User: What shape does this take?
Amino acid sequence: MTLGDRSRAETVALFGLGAVLLVWIIGALVDSSVYFQPILFGLGTGAIIAAIALGLVVAYRASGVINFGHGAIATYITYVYVSLTDTGEYPVPPLPNPVAPIEAIFNVEIFDLPTMIDLGDAMGTGMAVIISLATAALLGLIAHYAIFRPLRYAPVLAKVVASVGIMLFLQAAVVLRFGARAKSADPIFPNDPVDFLGVRVNQDRFWLLGTVAVVTLVLWLLFRYTRFGIATRASAENERFTTLLGFNADYQAGVSWVLSTVLAGMMGILVAPVTGVTPNLFTVLLISSLAAALLGKMSSFVVAAAAGMALGILDQQLFRIEFEWEWLPDIGIRRALPFIAVALAMVIRGEALPSRGAVIAARLPAAFAPRITRWRVTGYVLLVAASFVVSVFAPFQFRGAMVNSMIGVVFALSLVVVTGYLGQISLMQMALAGIGAFAVGSFGTAAGMPMLIAMPLALVCGVLFGLVASLPSLRTRGASLAVVTLASGLAIEEIFFKRSGWFGLDRTNKSSDPPEILGIEFGPSSDFFLGDGKIPTGGFGIFVLVITVISCVAVMRLRRSRLGEQMLAVRANERAAAAAGVNVAAIKLTAFGISSLFAALGGVLTAYKLGTYSGALFGIFASLTILAFAYLGGISTVGGAVTAGTLFTEGIGVVITNEWFVDVGPYTAYVAGFFLIATAVYNNEGIDGFQRKQFHHVVNWARAKRGLGPLDELAPTAVEVADV
Amino acid sequence: MSEHLLSIEGLHAGYDGVAVVRDLNLFVDAGEVVALLGPNGAGKTTTLMTISGMVQRLAGSVAIDGQTVPRLRQAHKVRRWGVLHVPENRGILFQLTVRENLELAKTSGKVDIDIALEFFPALGPLMNRKGGLLSGGEQQMLALGRAIAAEPKLLMVDEMSLGLAPKIYEDLMPVVRRVADETNAGVLLVEQHVDLALEVADRGYVLSHGDLALSGTAAELLADRHVLDASYLGVESLED
Assistant: This one.
């Protein structure tokens, strides 16, 4: 077992134990008659967290992926199981109907693809479990062969994006098939209450605990002592060496994936009766599980399971403390627990996660900086002019969509800077946007400052939060950083957006006055002299357009500046950059600062657009979705950000499709998830890079016809030639 | 006609369709040590990689015991033909213990660790140490020990002396001879140290810029030392 050296594992275990004990003692002081209650109540949650953490570790060992979709896989399988036991129907994931275009054109109904396959009456538990777990195994095979095997040598970013795609896709599939309502499942374990140490507790908690313990033990033995286990660990370290020894690394990874998804499904089914099932149940718990898995360094099953249990118990204990000691200021500590655990994991386990010794590591998508030509500038001007016309004169639904898209562009730009240029993954962008939105409400409306002061102040707040939250990036990178930023985003959401107070909710919502410059209001419902006067009015469109255009130009200039070059140097190789005299820490913080600025700007625009809003808009799923769209558009170019904007939720692309073609509304997340996976696996430059390459092919083909050589700018660069 | 253990005919090997090794003919018999020599960039490692399937063959045939090894998409299958390749960087898994490293000598069936210990008794006390904590010499012993425990028909060792003190590889080199003598395996040895390699080898091939420049028995090669040297320096100097 790759426990690192033993002393380190012991340190972690002691730390965890110490934390649990401390909180428990405090809890005992609160009410000494219930020493054990939180522990017993925490067993259920702890078991789920531990089980998901185990699956994460297996998947990581299989293919070096921190699988953000793991929770969604558990959820999907659980829903399959619930559906089978409730009605005997097997859900079919939504598939595109090949005859849909014909149906749409001729306005006829030819046939519908089935949404459910009826397998007879409500099924018995055993049969349902078998079918569900078979589905889980199939998902594991698909995940391996269609997604993560092709991504073997891909940069971490592509793997993270693909797993986020899995999450969005499966979660959307669940919502499409079952709706967002919670469901209940029949218990598998006996759940009669028992008296234990003076506490009445449902006995299924103990069964769960036992199952997790057995699974942990089995996994530990498997990876510690069997040749399959040893060889899998060996392949994780160096695939090439094990291949020379005759082991099929690919097969091992496939088996591990199946193991991981079946484990996810099994735990989901066992846990569902305890918690009830909601579409994002396990994804919410995923952060705690990630923390537990990280504490186990993504390789130790025992530490991961123990940490998971400890987190569950701590959660219950903190819940009790908050409940009993009402005078304690509500600082949201319980909700920030996963974040604290992740931060702790990073401090203790500061060293990099064990990475897979891939044969070749592929590059991140090219950060293409087009040469500024007359044609290109003309194109930009035309695009801006068209945007202006749509924002001001188009029918109101298109104007609204245009505003959404432009805000989406600003969000995507924030990721272009930090992910495209700097090469770091940030999953907290929407939380920073929320800080911008809540701050502008606090400064502008609550404190009554004029917009020209409130808005910059809000942006400063966003940048400050971004800088603090990005401090871990100085020590961690890649997938670990992705987890840290996700946890930071969650902490910001829980601590600031769900409670009242400064930067918090006014009561149940937050509100902001419309922007006003020199006495002219530019809000979405302010009167404006151009356009038809419906909401959003042209004034707001112009306001957003100006800001978006400035942002785009700024990021384009950043790419060409010395600072931009330095960011790319850090992205390519931190050590080499440092050796070449780049101050890596300063560049990273600067990039995160700039990125936070754009995120907060997007948040401020969202605040102005809505006037009244809540924290739900700025949750971790929104952050993941933003990354999805930005990657889909093209993560490393401004053109990609603009493309991302058109695809954005309720954006111009979606509204045009809805108005003129078919209503894709409910399928947006589903389709986006699918294309996200496809983009990550087969076209990592996103839509922008794809169409640029096609365009270059056409131009060079035309030049070749006229006997001209390929354009310098369009020819593949030396780097590309070198690593073909 | 008796069949060679390994026979390579008209092999073209390289990367992305560009041949680095051209038209190579080579054979190794059972119980024989054959040295593959040549300056840096001659294509020695590429040749071994191509035999073990890690690099796709461009043209030519590779046969083991007279049976043609098909061009495989999956390199791990070459191991089934009894080929074991100790790569240049030794192939030690740093996160695994010495015992676990040895355990990977075979994909199925029991691994007789004692075989490795018989050749390298020094590994005995190191059984529970992580591979990454071994010294260079110990790692090379482990790599060779694992290869021997794998009981291969054909053992290919790439640059055994790389990064090791002369004292150490001078001790290791005779082991290769012993493997061939005692287990009747064929050994294909890639080496920079010509004299050292030819001391234990029966025959040798010299590659230069991807072409076969010279071949013969070890004694012949050593006798015509100036020809051997010339092939290292380039074909032109032969004509002087």
User: Anything to note?
Assistant: Residues 92-151 of chain B form one domain. The beta strands of chain B are 6-15, 18-28, 33-37, 57-64, 67-68, 83-86, 154-158, 186-190, 203-208, 211-217. DSSP finds eight helices and ten strands in chain B. Chain B has a mean pLDDT of 83.
